[in-house]
Every structure is written in C-alpha cells, then in structure tokens.
Amino acid sequence: MYKYDEIDQRLVDERVAQYRDQTRRYLAGELSEEEFRPLRLQNGLYIQRHAPMLRIAVPYGMLSSKQLHKLADIAQKYDRSYGHFSTRQNLQLNWPKLEEIPDILAELATVEMHAIQTSGNCIRNITTDQFAGVAPDEVVDPRAIAEVMRQWSTFHPEFALLPRKFKIAVSGTKDDRAVVQMHDIGMEFYLDSQNKVAIKVWVGGGLGRTPILGSVIREHLEWQHALTYCEAIVRVYNLHGRRDNSYKARIKILVKALGIDEFRSQVEAEWAHLKDAPNTITESELARVAKHFEAMPYATLPAHDASFDAAIASNPAFANWAKRSLHAHKTAGYRAVTLSLKPHGKAPGDASSEQMHVVADLAEQYSFGELRVSHEQNLILADVKLSDLFAVWEKARANGLATPNIGLLTDIICCPGGDFCSLANAKSIPIAEAIQMQFDNLDYLHDIGDIELNISGCMNACGHHHIGHIGILGVDKDGSEWYQVSIGGSQGNHASIGSVIGPSFSAEEMPSVVQKLIDVYIKERTPEELFIDTARRLGVAPFKAYVYAKDEVTA
Amino acid sequence: MSQLIKLNDNVAHIAENQWAVVQLPPSLVEARKQAGKVVLFKLTGEKTVSEEQLSGTIIPESGKVIVPLSVFIARKAQLQARINAGEIGVWVDTHEVLNDLAEHQADLNQLPIIAIHVERFADGRIFSLGLLLRTRYGFKNELRAIGDVLRDQLFFLKRSGFDSYLIRADRNAQEAMLSLKDFSAPYQGAVDEPRPAFLRYNRVA
User: Using CA atoms, how far apart are residues A286 and A256, in angstroms rounded to an integer?
Assistant: First the structure.
C-alpha cells in the first residue's frame, strides 16, 4: 500500500499544528461556533448527541497492521475502546473529547493517517472496491490513481468550500463494487480498443434526500487527464451549484437543472483550458505511486490445498463460514477473506480495540500486514493462503469476527443513527439488532441466500437505504420514530433505487415486516431467483399486499 | 491599525489601505442572487441590480475607489477619465459573472485593482473567481479579497491568486498573516505555483 514520503509526512504534520491552533482559538473564543464549524468538519469532527464524533480517513479503505494497532490504541486511550467502520470505508470514534482531537491527530500522523476532509463541503475520501488488486475480474487496479487523486484533492485551494460535500468513487472491475453510479463523480477504469487505460466518467449520482443515479458525462477519458477533467467538473459545480438551500446543493441537482448535455458542454468548455495543464498526471508519477501497489510476493501454490479441502469436508461450521466469507483471488492458492463485523445483536460495523488488535495480528501473520475496510462495513484480509484459512477462522471465531453471514440478510449496512448522530430522525442500530435476532438461524439465513439490507436513520442516507434490496429509512412523524420500507434497490452494474412499499412502521413492527417480505419471496421465488430478482420480477404489489394485510387475514 | 494584508514577492505585510470601496444603495426589491440561479439569470437576462441602485450609487469625486461591477458597467463613460488615471478599481460579488467585466473592459490590466467580495466566508466561489481572473483573463495587478475575509481561508486565497486581503474589521490582521504559511509543500498545482508536487520534487517510491 502507499507509504508516505517526506512531502506527505510534512503535510499531515503541518495539519496537526494548524488544527491544534484552530482548536485553541475556538476554545479561547477567538473563533465563533459558526466559523469553527467548517474547520472542524473538514477535520471530520461532528458535534453529536452525547459527544463529538471523529471520523478518521482510511483512504480507499486500505490499512496496514501497524495503523490498525494504532487505531485500537487510540480508541482505548481517547474513547470507549471501540470504533465504528462506516460505509465510506472510514473509522468513526463516538466519544472523543474536542480538546483532545489535536493529540489524536498527532498520534495518527505517526502512522501516516489523518482526518482531513472526512466531512464538510469539500472533496471527501475517495472510495473503491475492497478487492482492488486481488479480484479476478479486475481490469485495472484503481488504487494508484485513487492515491494520485487523494493527493490532488487534499487541501485543494479552489475546492476548499464547495456548495456541499463531494464524493468520488473509482472502480476497475467488470462487476462494479464501488457503486460509482451513486457518487458525485464515479470513475470506471477500463482498457480501450488501443489497450490503454481509459476512464468512463459518471457525474451527478447520489443518495440522500433526492436519490439519483449518475449520468455518463464522458465515455472515454485518457487516465492522464483524470485530475484536470475532475477540476473542470468541480469548477463548474463550485461556481454554479446552489448555495441558498443545502438540500439542493449537491452536484446532482445542478446536473438535473441544466440537463446532462448542457452540463457536459460547460464542463468540456472549461476543460478545453485545462487539458494538458501541469496537473496532468505524468507516466512517472503514476509509476511512482503504482509501485506501492505492486502484487504481493505470493508463493507459487497449487489451486487446491488438501488440508483446506479436508477441513471443509469434516467441519460444517468452517464450511459454512468459508462459503460466505471467501472471495476468489487472482493468484492460485489464495483467497480474500471477509471478517464479519455483523455478529447478531451487535451494532453493524463496530469493532472493539481488542478485535482491532486481533485483526491487525491476523493481517500481520497471514496477509502481508495489510487489510481493507469495505463499504459494507466489514474488514478484509485480501491475501490469505488456502492452507492458512482454518487457522484464520479459528482465531476470528474466538473473537466474534466469523459470523458466516457475509452477503446474507444479517450482514446489514447501517449508519450510527439516532443513538449517536444528531442529524438522525430515528435510531437505526436497535432496528438492525432486532432484525438480526429475528433471523438468528444460520440454515434459514443461507436458505434465504444473497440479499442486502440497508438502514439509514435519516434521509442523508449514510446507510445507503435506497440501494438496499430491502431499504429501511428512519423518519420523524410528530416527534416519534417511524420506519419507511423500500424494496428493489441495488448496487452494482445494474444499480437501481428502491420503491417505497407504503406507510411507515413503528420500531417494534420492523422485524415482522422484514419477515413478511422474506415470506413472500420464499413463497414466490423460482429455484434460481435471489430476493432482488423476485422483487424486480413481481414489483412492489405482492409484497405490499402481504405486509399490510390485516392480521386476521394472515393469521 | 490597518486590516489590510498584502503579499509582495511572497512576503506578507500589513499595508495601508488606499482604496475606498463604493457600495450600492440598498435595494427596495429583494436581491435575487442565489448561486445556481445565476445560470438562469443569464439565460433570461434578468438583472440582480435595479436601475435605481445603479444611478443612486454615490461615487466619491476624487481618490482611489473600487466600484461595484454593475455600476462600473452602467456608468463607465462617466468614469473613463479616472479609469485612465488609474483611480478606478472594480469589485465583483461571488454570484456575478467575470465575462460581464471582460466584455466591458477589454484590457483588465488597465485596472490597478480588482476585488472579489465574499458575503459569507464559507462561500468558496471566491477561489474559482480569483483563479479565473489570473489564469483565464490574465489579470496581473492587485487582486483583493474583501468582505467576510478570515484567517483560516487565507492560505486558499493565496493559492487561488489573491495577493491582498482585507481582514474583517473585528479580527487581528497581524495574527491572521501567520496562516498564509500553514502548509509549506502543497500537493496540487494552483495559481501561486502551477506545478503539482510531483513536478516540483523528485519523489521516489
């Protein structure tokens, strides 16, 4: 993974000093609440219900063992010994003290980490596929460009105060796992007819209050122009995006208001001036950064391992876990392993300091000292030998990291919700926990099969509820918490936005509502259909009819 | 003490302010100047400033003055002698369009100063406008940030081509100056240094 040089290190060190002084001035009353707000937000610091929340950047989800050990230590020293991995592949601390944030940043800087631009109206952490570099269906490893873009966007002077937040995702696989279509800018890398790396650029996607999938602004962009083209897009947005109403301030609203064709022509006119400017990426810079993402020193192994096959055959629990938790790998004899942060009855995405140390040790011992955070809020060891999987499983299981539910109903994507977040209309974690307990039967879960359930505590959609096969949105009605349910949303190449099935439900009703949706699916599915297929084929009607049927009818 | 910070050869110092900023009289109708609507205003030709405001703006008879863009355009003939004498600068609001200025003043460098007025410090359009004036319109003279200009935006303003900053009256300009040096080796190319770090330094993996 990327390692800092002097330039990178100096920048984060100077950031610590800058933020320390900003905090001092705020505490001394020299900065008003309003003036300090964008400063702390651009450093990932929210003022929340109980305490501030600090969001630490995990660029495109990559972490080293050393970094994870440090995060575990920080969570223990400055917080309540746990952290929350978010859908932006970042780590959030829920209980730090405002005055201690500069010290936390100083500790982060010692392991080449920071909290720069993890919130606020600026370019946020660039996200990508958690299997980048190891996935067999990968055409282009997007991490080198993602790092080049991270550097470009860090303290970009022109884009320091945009109308609203700005999220970029990059992917380089046939099966999109980075949800590029729901980002302000999505970049899909591919090889063009000349066999050169090119980018298909999407713009104006986003969830939130007005969910819209992105539009293609350019089918073919040579990789060298990734920065200047983004500069043109963000400049048009910075100048013309709405600033009078924060709900209408995302780029998607501007793209929609102008129409993609008019927006594209403005961007292209701007880009005509920027093309080949000094920010054009050079071969040598890409090569320098790409060196950090070269293939690991893999052993030459056969495609099968006798000890692994024997363990699968003799140990059903291990077999169950392997079935859900392993992802194919480019290199023979290796697998990517997903460690579940979704044990039933616990807050999805949470990890204790102890668990973080365990995962860091596992990565050190079995996966070249690196790991990734997925936007599904799990942790991934990307390079594990088949022969080591049993040992990894035993250690993970002993530490509550091996729930065999990856991709199943209880692998819920969930925001922190009303328990922590001051934006939320409703709690989300207790809903997730209640659903996990309702479906706490592994055979049944496996029978239901692949399904994605997403929960957001408000329309800001941090839990990406619009693209859940089942999406749950917390809403406020007359001061009490209700939940709106949608079905048919999906991420991936065939991304779609779910349809609301009808009036919202109380928290207590939610497990049984999900149960009824599953019942309809089980009853109606054809042998090869997953939930999303059945939902797409039948539409909302049969689900709605059953969920809202009077109790006496269904009893 | 003066609230004006100026940058000369990349060295910041407190300078005396020789320019008076001319304001438009308050409008009787609600100003329509929200971001995003500018695009629409351009299409419909709708103005954000009324005729009464333009004719009612009081411009001091002598001395160096910075006039609003709309007044400059509407009353340029009247100001021409003073423009030639280098006594007139123009200020532009962040919702206004630079092309309007360029259309009415072919040689921008005839103006000794252009100011961008930022009503709220969090309005980042000021950065794009500064950058465009420097790189697209070739403006070489003093470029000043006025309005809600605060310390923590100075570094970005400098990088976007501003070399003069009128700090909000209730803040300490001397202290604010320190923030111009927040970062010593920024990553990306910008106006003050067009080369990104990967062209400036020999970075090895």
Answer: 34
Q: Of A300, A290, A374, give the one whose Cα is nearest residue A337.
A: A374
Does the distance separating the beta carbons of B36 and A242 come in below 8 Å? yes
The pLDDT value recorded for residue A49 is 67
ipTM of the complex: 0.94
User: Does the beta-carbon distance from A35 to B150 stay under 8 Å?
Assistant: yes
pLDDT of residue A555: 41
Chain A CB contacts of B123 below 8 Å: 161, 243
CATH number for the A6-109 domain, one of 1.10.260, 1.10.287, 3.30.70, 3.30.300? 3.30.70
CB contact (8 A) between residue B203 and residue A162: no
Q: And the tokens for B37?
A: 């609507």
Is B104 inside any structural domain?
yes
Kind plus residue range of the DSSP H or E element containing A153: helix A143-153
Rounded to the nearest angstrom, the minimum Cα separation between A179 and chain B is: 27
Dist. CA A95–CA A83, nearest whole Å: 9
Residue B33: predicted pLDDT: 56
Nearest CA-CA partner of A406 in A491, A323, A468, A465: A323
User: Domain containing B148: what range?
Assistant: 4-25+42-200
- 3-state SS, residue A326: strand
Counted domains in chain B: 1
B 5-44 residues inside an 8 A Cβ radius of A: 34-39
Write the CATH number of the domain with boundaries A413-554.
3.30.413.10
A458-489 exposure pattern, b = at least 16 Cβ within 10 A, e = fewer: bbbbbbbbbbbbbbbbbeeeeeebbbbbbbbb
The CATH fold of domain A134-290 = Sulfite Reductase Hemoprotein; domain 1 (3.30.413)
Phi, psi torsion values for A273, nearest 5 degrees: -80, -25
Q: Which residues of chain A fall below pLDDT 70? A: 49-50, 551-555
Contact status, residue A191 vs residue A140, Cβ threshold 8 Å: yes
Domains A6-109 and A413-554 share a fold: no
The distance of Cα A445 from the centroid of its chain, to the nearest Å, equals: 24
CB-based contact B203 A243, cutoff 8 Å: no
